[in-house]
Amino acid sequence: MKDSLSIPTKVLGITTRKTPWGEESKTWDRFKMGIHEPLINLHTPADLLRQITSISVANPVSMLRSLRVTETSPEMD
């Protein structure tokens, strides 16, 4: 792994009443979910990148994969 960029965590929240009707105590539940999205740059051959991105991930984790192939100059090797 050459370098990694951490995208800010997106926090989603829901505030809902605890009781199904509004006549009793006015209590609330607050739920939050944080979405973490790391961006990883790999400098490796394209065939190896295809093998890495073909790995299956168990549920409930979802992963967005994209592959961008760029040409390298001889002085970068």
TrEMBL record:
GO terms for biological process: translation. GO terms for cellular component: ribonucleoprotein complex; ribosome. GO terms for molecular function: structural constituent of ribosome. It comes from the Eukaryota. Residues 2-61 form the Small ribosomal subunit protein uS10 domain. Coiled coil: none annotated. Keywords: Ribonucleoprotein, Ribosomal protein. The keyword Ribonucleoprotein applies. InterPro entries: Ribosomal_uS10, Ribosomal_uS10_dom, Ribosomal_uS10_dom_sf. It holds the Pfam family Ribosomal_S10. Gene3D superfamilies: Ribosomal protein S10 domain. Belongs to the universal ribosomal protein uS10 family. This is Ribosomal protein S10p/S20e.
